[in-house]
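User: Predict the structure for this protein chain, please.
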Amino acid sequence: MTAADDRRPEWPYKLTEAQVLLLAGHITQINHRWEMTGVDTSRNWIEFKSDKGKAFSAPDGWAELFEFAPNHHASLIRPNYRGEQAIKRLDEIKKFEAKHATERAEFERLKRKFDAV
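Assistant: Here is the predicted structure, written as structure tokens:
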């Protein structure tokens, strides 16, 4: 076992793990939203809706990992090469966390114990 096996895989992406997980799910609706914020100013954003009905604003940088590719059998967006790599990294992290679940639980227990002191 090497030292690298003992460390959680790094997350080198701008989007969070949770954001990539949401985007990797089935996106069933995409809306462009726009609103006036002042007399001569406005803002606009893209809103995604998952197959579970959860609506969320597209995070900044989503297009670095995903692309618009409508498919009536699947999602309206799909991961590009970098997005596929991010999803693979999520799988590595999930396996690491499952492998070290007992150690993590012990760490959390000790943390609570000594934070209370």
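The chain has a mean pLDDT of 90.
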